[in-house]
Here is the input.
Amino acid sequence: MSEASARANILVIKLGALGDVVQALGPMAAIRKHHADARIVLLTGAAFADFLRASPYADEVWVDPRPHKLNLPGMFALRRRLRGGNFARVYDLQTSDRSSLYFRLMGPGKRPEWSGIAPGCSHPHANPARDSMHTVDRQREQLAMAGIADVPPADLGWVAADLARFKLPDPYVLLVPGGSAGRPAKRWPVAKYAALATELLAHGATPVLIGGPDEKGLGETVRAVAPRSRDLIGQTNFADIAAMARGAGAAIGNDTGPMHLIAAAGCPSVVLFSSESDPKLCAPRGAEVAVLRRESLKGLGVDEVMRLLFVREGKVPAPRKPNRP
Here is the structure.
């Protein structure tokens, strides 16, 4: 038997979204350490595959094709691949209806050991209150029930990116004015970000705006009011954002995926929440994360955000270190 075939095969499932992927990095590191001699395959969404291929947590990254349940050829092809992986154990960090469906696809016959919530799995996360736990705490407990007791915080020290093409100013503050297009109440009004950009410029820090390609209009709106802001919306990948966060004096943004990356990179961060989401369940985790929550973000003033910032010896404003939400 070859050395490769003698290794145990382990599958980790984390399909998305970005914030959830970031919050699963600690569990991924714990699984890698626990199964140090195993071949680990990570099943994820197409948007995250390249980012996670650069990580030290998996030997191989598979892209989830997400076939519709009525797409029988697609479902059978996925079943063949999953069963062909000869996995000894699966860690389902997605714990969704879709990922639990993949447990059923592993049958009939003997399935691999499975940590998750799929009915009949060998290592269920057997806490009926799991849905009221923060994502990080929930996954930590899930792994403890599967025999992995030591789960570290997310660490982005492995992320590398060449930022020279952006010619970033010094000092700068990251602004993340976007978020889920389908949930506009999660966004602080872009006019408030424009006013904040004006305040930051007055304090000697250049606002640098980041976000997805479909959010370019937000950057244009901010620059119409604060033209010395840098608009990089639609120009960065995940590694770029993490690297930018290391050099930023601070970051301010909505409850959206990039803020999880920024916070995990160690950047002092202010994250804005409305009643649309609960920071107790999903706030970014990091050494210096402050949460501002209002029933409606329309009522959150620029001065309230600025009160979490300070200027000292001409340095970039940075949030005070808060208690973790």
Remarks:
- The radius of gyration is 21 Å.
